[in-house]
Design brief:
Distance between the termini: 99 Å
Helix content: 10-25%
Strand content: 35-45%
Radius of gyration: 27 Å
Low-confidence stretches: 21-34
Order of helices and strands: HEEHEEEEEEEE
Shape: elongated
Number of domains: 1
Largest sheet: 5 strands, mixed
Mean pLDDT: 79
Number of strands: 10
């Protein structure tokens, strides 16, 4: 009987040791950690395209946005993307008649099927093309409307 107990004990020990090895292997195969935020300071221009603007129904969720002179800073929420070049800021070229005039913008993302990483992005755009000219009442201001921001961002540029 003691030989049976010893054999059973050895089988249990071997099974437990084997399961520990498989747990370690699973931990090794995890995706390596990557930077949380990718910052792109290329100050790209806005793409002015009515057809593409109208066709774009899905936009990227923004975490926050701010203005600094002629630069719009957009901060995305964490999403599956690897390259800041796959983002495009769209404008249909029209202004809503209000004081100040309003320009609606959309952030488009072109999907990368091969990318498996998740990042937040800090994107910068030169927004000087959105200036509303020809109205002396506004004194150099345009309200930028972005999806997810009810109040919009006031872009003040003065008379130039």
């Amino acid at each position: 009987m003691s030989l049976r107990c010893i054999c059973k004990t050895l089988v249990v020990i071997v099974c437990l040791l084997g399961s520990c090895k498989s747990t370690k292997q699973a931990a090794v195969k995890e995706v390596p950690a990557v930077e949380e935020e990718i910052t792109d300071l290329s100050f790209r221009k806005i793409i002015k395209d009515k057809e593409l603007f109208a066709a774009t129904t899905e936009t990227i969720a923004l975490d926050s946005a701010r203005l600094s002179n002629d630069t719009l800073h957009l901060y995305t929420k964490k999403l599956q993307a690897c390259d800041a070049d796959n983002f495009k800021l769209l404008w249909n070229g029209s202004m809503a008649k209000s004081l100040p005039p309003q320009a609606s913008l959309k952030l488009l993302f072109i999907n990368e099927p091969s990318c498996r990483e998740q990042h937040r992005f800090h994107l910068t755009y030169n927004i000087s093309s959105v200036r509303f000219k020809g109205d002396s009442v506004t004194k150099g201001a345009t309200l930028l409307k972005l999806p997810g921001f009810n109040s919009g961002l006031l872009y003040e540029f003065g008379e130039k």
